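Students often ask why inverse folding is considered easier than folding. One informal answer: many sequences map to the same fold, so there is more than one right answer. In these notes we will look at a single instance of the problem. The structure comes first.
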C-alpha cells in the first residue's frame, strides 16, 4: 500500500507492474491473509497503525480478487482501469501532431508489438497492454533467474523507453499540462 501509493504518484508504469506483482504474490499465498501478514507485513516492522492499514489493504485486494473472479489469473478492475486510461491517452497523443517524438517511439516498437500479439494466440491484447505484458514477462524471467537473449533484452529496452514516455505524458496529463496550448 505504501509503495503502491508512492509509485502511483511518481510513475504509473511502475505502479501497474507493481500491482500485477502484488496480484501474483497474493495468488502465491493462496489468498491467505494470515500467511501474507506473517511473511510479508510483519517483517516490515511497521508501527501498529500502519501495519493495520497495510493488512487491510491486502485484505481488500483479496476480497476484490474473489469478487472479480481473478483468483487464478487476470487483473483487478482497478488495474485494468489504468490500462484503459493509458490506452485512451495513447490514442489522444497519436491523434495529435505535436507529439512527433512519441509517434516515432511508437512506430519504432510497433513491429515488436505485432510480433508479441501474434504469439499471444487467440487472446491478443491491445498495444499498450501488450507492452506491459512484455515488461512483466521480463520481470518474471529475471526473478526466476532465466536467461534473457540479447534480442529480447534489446526489444524490451525499446518497449521500456516507449512506456516511460507514455508514463511521463500520463502524469503531465493528470496535472493538465500535456495538451496545454503553448500560448497559454
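Output (designed amino acids):
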Amino acid at each position: 500500500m505504501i509503495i503502491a501509493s508512492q509509485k502511483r504518484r511518481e510513475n504509473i508504469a511502475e505502479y501497474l507492474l507493481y500491482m500485477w506483482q502484488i496480484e501474483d504474490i497474493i495468488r502465491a499465498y493462496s489468498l491467505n491473509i494470515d500467511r501474507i501478514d506473517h511473511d510479508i507485513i510483519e517483517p516490515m516492522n511497521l508501527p501498529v497503525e500502519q501495519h493495520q492499514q497495510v493488512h487491510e489493504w491486502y485484505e481488500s485486494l483479496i476480497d476484490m480478487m474473489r469478487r472479480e473472479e481473478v483468483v487464478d489469473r487476470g487483473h483487478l478492475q482497478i488495474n485494468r482501469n489504468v490500462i484503459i486510461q493509458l490506452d485512451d491517452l495513447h490514442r489522444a497523443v497519436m491523434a495529435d501532431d505535436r507529439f512527433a517524438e512519441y509517434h516515432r517511439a511508437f512506430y519504432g516498437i510497433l513491429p515488436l508489438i505485432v510480433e508479441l500479439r501474434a504469439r499471444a494466440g487467440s487472446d491478443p491484447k491491445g498495444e499498450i497492454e501488450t507492452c506491459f505484458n512484455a515488461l512483466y514477462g521480463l520481470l518474471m524471467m529475471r526473478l526466476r533467474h532465466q536467461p534473457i537473449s540479447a534480442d529480447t533484452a534489446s526489444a524490451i529496452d525499446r518497449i521500456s523507453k516507449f512506456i516511460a514516455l507514455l508514463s511521463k505524458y500520463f502524469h503531465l496529463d493528470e496535472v493538465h499540462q500535456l495538451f496545454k496550448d503553448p500560448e497559454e
